[in-house]
Amino acid sequence: MYKQKKIDSAEWLKRIERAQKFRDQVRDKQGWQRFLDYYEGDYNVKGKAIQSPPINMVFGYVQTGIAKIYFRDPYITVNPTKVISPNGARILEHVINYYFRELDLKNENAKVLLDTYLIGHGWLKYGYRADIGSDQAASGEPSEYIKNEEIFATYVPWDDILFDVTLCKDPPHDCKWIAHRIIKPLEEIKGNTEFKNTELLQSNVSVRDAKGEKIDDALKDSDLELFEYWEINDKDSGMIVCVADGMDGYLQERDNTYEMEGSPFSMFKFNPLPGKPYPLSDISLIEPQVLERIKLRAGQINHIKRWSRQLSIEKGSMSKQEMEKFSQGIDGAITEREKGSQPPTPIQYAQMQEETFQLDDLIQRDMDAVIGQTDVERGGVARTKTDTLGELKEQTAGTSSRSAKRQDVLEDYLEEVARKLISLIQQFQTTPKYIQITGMSQEEIQQAFQGLQSDANGFYFTRDDIQGEYSVDVKAGSTLPMNRENRIKVIEALLNPAVAQAIGIMQGHVPPTQTGLELGKELIRELDLKGVEKAYEQQIQALTAPQLPLSVPVSPQSQAVPGSILPQVPQLPNVPELNGVI
User: Fold this and answer.
1) What pLDDT score was predicted for residue 248?
2) 5, 273, 372, 421: which one has the fewest Cβ atoms less than 10 Å from its Cβ?
3) In whole angstroms, how far apart are CA 16 and each of 23, 67, 161, 301, 339?
């Protein structure tokens, strides 16, 4: 039977050093630092005769890519696979969607996506923190209680994560260990009772900027001493240990008590390489074309500047002093030249070759084919002669399949995020947690979450209310933008008589089917207008309510119109909230 060999802190530091050298080799080979410089507008394209501001195409590509697939928080659905807690799936669905908003995961995942587009991958870390207080019980014995607790999911920069690259091909799923670099003030480390061997600790890291260059002494906090250490999640031993340069032994040792499947890290990537741990950056695929287009554009600008400012004069017609005065271009200046000589005349403008524009267009088309974006999607002008709506649709249709694939990868990642968060909530949420709900009245909340403490805006729950096994799905397309134009399109589709009768928002000769009603729910939910959703729910209840027997007296106000089958109910177009949309 395999027995795990105990590893000391010195061996862990050697492993970290080897993993860092491997990552830095990949970084230099792919050019990660260059891509970061490009994003900031520093393309380092210079020449003696070429001085032109670069076109920051990398920034436009990255921002367009993020906006196309992750514009809103996802809507996560939860279904039970093994029921333990009654009504647990309904509670958990509200809980996990609330946590995505409370933890600001939209902002954290945007940082992950930024790293993914530039570097090729991004990291998210999960965990639980609790501030334990102590008190004296009635019996006189000391007792501990939780003063504050926090379940977190936070972005981690790519250069703060290392992992075992010996056998790992699909991180983090097959990593034997993952190390997270953490830098804190030395005083905070020494004052934390969870750390040990801190008596002789000294600062082991200097304040540096993003490029590794020392910041000017006048700009850094002279009183702040920093300490760098590595927190290692070891899969084989089931331990979490902390090690650091400049100290013997462990800074901290503790059991990994997380019950989540896999490690408390998620790595997001678009372009995995077969048999290699680090994926490929999108920018590396188009870097040659980006640089060539910048050089070509710089040549075009330099050509115009050069030939529009060169003049020629007859030899000896002006003295050196008069030529200097003339070159200054001061309004009202008077210059002298030899009698009978011609004034300075501009050199005939050399026509720019048309091939340069054709080449510029070909390079951009090559880039579009590789990255799956068009000028229109990046806010540019369409490359058509007539700019008709049909031509614009044809340009964007070719990129839809590429975007759909990336959208699917993103949704798989968000489902993993939701599963890991649910595991932490089921394990650690021992105290009541308040979940805010919008779009439901107090009576509806009480009816939907019977047995839980609730009020007009939400309910309280603990981990006991959500125990069990559940499947988690991200609603397809829920992260995509729903702007004013898209809302109007959905509303126009809903107001189409055939659609409106099929989903029950307009009266027809044939009652709507259950399938039609469910489709109506999905369409109206896309509007993200709570008032419309509530009105539609009321209308469905009225449509599906059992009809009163004929012997029961019916008030004139509730009598059906002769010849109609469905009861009269409020129509969606009269909902006031739509007036603010259209």
Assistant:
1) 87
2) 5
3) 10, 36, 10, 49, 82
